[in-house]
Amino acid sequence: MKIGVFICHCGSNIAATVDVKKVAETAGRMAEVVYATDAMYACSEPGQQAIEEAVKKYALSGVVVASCSPRMHEATFRRTVERAGLNRYMFEMANIREHVSWIGRDQGPNTVKAIELVRMAVEKLRLNRALIPRKLPATRRALVIGGGVAGIQASLDCAEAGLEVVLVEREPSIGGKMSKLDKTFPTVDCSSCILGPRMVDVAQHERITLYAYSEIESVSGYVGNFEVVIRKKAAYVDWDKCTGCGLCIEKCPSKKNFDRFNEGLGSAAAINIPFPQAIPKKAVIRAEDCRQFQGKKCGICAKFCPTGAINHEQQDELVTIQVGAIVAATGYDLADWTVYGEYGAGRYADVITSLQYERMLSASGPFGGHIKRPSNGEEPKSVVFIQCVASRDPSIGRPYCSGFCCMYTAKQAIMTRDHIPDSQSYVFYMDIRSPGKGYDEFTRRAQEEYGAQYVRGRVSQVYPRGNKLVVRGADTLLGSQVEVEADLVVLAVGGEGSREAAGLAEKLRISYDSFGFFLEGHPKLKPVETNTAGVFLAGSCQGLKDIPFSVSQGSAAAAKTLALLSRDMLESDPQTAQVDIKRCIGCGKCIQVCPFQAIREADLRGQSKAEVLEAVCQGCGLCNATCPQGAIQLSHFTDNQVLAEVEALLCP
Amino acid sequence: MAVQEELKKIILGLLPQVDCVIGWGPGPDLLCASPYFMRRPEEVDNFLAGPMATQNTALYLPEYKGKKVALVVKGCDSRSVAQLLAEKLIAREEVRIIGFPCAGVADMGKIAARLAPHGEPGEAEKAVYGEKELRITMAGRELVLPLAEIKADKCLRCAHPNAVFSDHFAGEKAAGNDDEFKDLAALETMSLEDRFSFWEKEMSRCVRCYACRNACPLCVCRDHCVASSRDPHWLTQADGVSDKLLFQVTHALHLAGRCTGCGECQRACPAGIPVLLLKRALSRAVEGLFGHSAGLDPETRPPLLTFQVEERTIKEKAW
């Protein structure tokens, strides 16, 4: 083997604290290395050209580049060596930037470590073999999970571009959190007026199949060829017959149930359509609220339904679909605000969440768009908003800023004055975060035109006095304690990943963080991709964001989906597990540990053997580490290659 | 012994249904039995069970895969069978398990030490294992060794003297003891340096014969053992203490959560290295972390042979 080694300066990023000349010189004396040099920027066009020329001039059969993280440029250099005529897996990268120059200032030890890392890469490369990706056909259909504004946008964009789209929504109607909002910032236009037409577009689009009140049961397969089982939950109403007339809701005798759509303000009938613009506008019976299901004699809805759509015997239905790509757009849920005992959340009727306030403001909400104190129905004259509830508070394990609360609080303060002109709003805040187009102007308008009083400081306590609430807190700008008598307290509650996000992430095989947010492929360069090929992210499921950003990300995820499925054939990554059938004894330990169900038992002339589904295998290596006889090896990371690296480090 | 006779009856009954019954028979000397493979009724006469039946009969099972075998098992042997079944290394329908209450086996090392002033174990002219003692006639005189004093250490802490599962059982079930891992205490009071020197000293006697591996009922890799595999070339053939220790540590790690503590590795070691201690330390760790003891239930998956995003007992993400 003839190996060429290229040591990158990365400007001064590496060269300032690593003696790159010495590293190149030492590398030149390593086994099978016939050419070693240093380069100012190996990734630049002249840098890559120099590599290509060296491959030809010295008839190199493998290349090592010592530069930055492979996460950054491995793909770049693989293409470089491929252009030079080598197999792209005859390339190794030593990370002497993130692992060396950026973490140590001392040139002596840095240079020694850089040499060690290069030696490891050379020793591994000596055992590399050419790997050929396999071609796989792709199903030109996309699955979008979650029918909030991000999922709606992704669905419409994909469908417009000609893809078949299956949209799955767990609630009876699409629309997500946006459909619960009254107005949107910074333009104060009506939320359902701008969302409604998009929802109708989804319903009417010939290439979009909508499964509302449905959940993802299981996901199998791999990029281009996922098989997804959808559970259509029993609505106990035949949706083909239901016209959405609402007579059943009117006649239902069980009316005092928790109203999910209205966040528990007001009550709902056991058979219900969540809101007037619902898509699909079909009724759903909640079994836990329905008298018929509690063994009482009822069936009134069935008696009155003009189309005979009620079916109390209906069962969940499983539907299996094939898709090529999946967009997760499962949104967020409010974080638990009841942990703040000092705010009286959950104890005092007049302490409500911002989302409940939205329902109060909404003309189609339970109060018909009138702001009322839940305790006595009176119009509040003094409204206190408390910001950063369950945001930016490490003491309850919520260190992050939810991002949208500053803006919606300003909007709600404006709406309060609009609804009740003689009212006064107070906003307790930590910092005002409004970096968006027209956003800062909006928060100023709330203060200057609408007279909202902003108090910089946290609230220590909310307690009742007479039929009012006393909000006591600090004003850190004045350096004093303040007390405000309030009729209504609105908590600007932050968000966290949707409660079912972790379960879905397991099914999709994507990572998620401790707040239930899905992990993007790269925080900057792959914001809508995941590390599982063919699964993309849109909206707040990836991290909290407001409507414009959710819509942008919905479109971005659609673009990624379209780019992926614009090809007829997909290439599989050949860095997968391989079974040596002579060694395999068929014990199946690899099958048990595989997180991706990528290994199955196969029969070979009467003997049981492990078989790797290459397209499903993600190359994690768990099977490799588990197999006692070493019958499974991971291509490009064989035990021998890893051992060669260890030995290069320990016994140079 | 009544149990031995009852076992013979069971074996005779099973012989027509299976290819072979594995138990114990006459050994190299009067003190110790050998593994015994019975195929014909007349061979059953020589069957032995008792303190001399030290070997783990489960060792041979993977070799018999595809054939029907009946196995006479002590409690410890049955745990090996259960573990082999849990790992799908043998098939349940191919094995018949015959259990009996085990009163513990003799430690040949302890017997040899007691006999040393008088001669070698092979020179015994007569040996009778009684209920409480072993009577040996050697050079014309009778020596009486109380069983309690020559019992193997593993039997003194044995929690499962009866087969943990069986198709046939001879005799009345015996009571077990609590295993408190007291054997690890001495080593754990040492400093890390002292402990390492202890192992360096012990391993210096190792001759890399791999008797420990060959005697282990759960070491099933055979030709592909890490010790001898050329590709991947995991271990060197160098004869240094660290190479020997590396093999033992690898062996112990491969058995983490799988080792049932039958002690055959240590019994087989010709150099008397206490290799079981390494496995015992890992067994206790697995028990503490996963609440799992190997070989108690053929249906349970060993914790290290499963994938879970979050282990119940390891809190990686606290929310």
- In terms of quaternary structure, the protein is heterodimer
What share of the residues of chain B does DSSP label as strand, in percent? 5-15%
The overall average pLDDT of chain A, rounded, is 95
How many extended strands of chain A? 34
Q: Based on helices, strands and strand pairing, what is the structural class of chain B?
A: alpha/beta
Helix-strand sequence of chain B: HEEEHEHEEEHHEHHHHHH
For the record, give the distance between the C-alpha atoms at the N and C termini of chain B, rounded to a whole number. Answer: 61 Å
Strand order of the largest sheet of chain B: 2-1-3-4-8
Largest sheet of chain A: 5 strands, parallel
Number of helices of chain A: 17
Rg of chain A to the nearest angstrom? 30 Å
| Largest interface (C-beta under 8 Å) | A-B, 25 and 23 residues
Structural class of chain A: alpha/beta
Question: How many distinct domains of chain A?
Answer: 5
Reading off the top of the CATH hierarchy, the class of the largest domain in chain A is best stated as: Alpha Beta
Inertia-based shape of chain B: globular
Give the low-pLDDT segments of chain B: none
Helix content of chain A: 25-40%
Question: How is this structure best described in words?
Answer:
The complex is a heterodimer of chains A (652) and B (319). With 652 residues, chain A is α/β, with parallel strands linked by helices. In chain A, the strands form twelve sheets. Chain A has a five-stranded parallel β-sheet with strand order 10-7-6-18-29. In chain A, helix 5 runs antiparallel to helix 17 and helix 6 (149-160) packs parallel to helix 14 (547-565). The model of chain A has no long low-confidence stretch (mean pLDDT 95). With 319 residues, chain B is an alpha/beta fold. In chain B, strands 2-1-3-4-8 form a five-stranded mixed β-sheet. In chain B, strands 5-6-7 form a three-stranded antiparallel β-sheet. The model of chain B has no long low-confidence stretch (mean pLDDT 91). Classes of the chains: A alpha/beta (652), B alpha/beta (319). Chains A and B meet through helix 15 and helix 17 of A and loops of B.
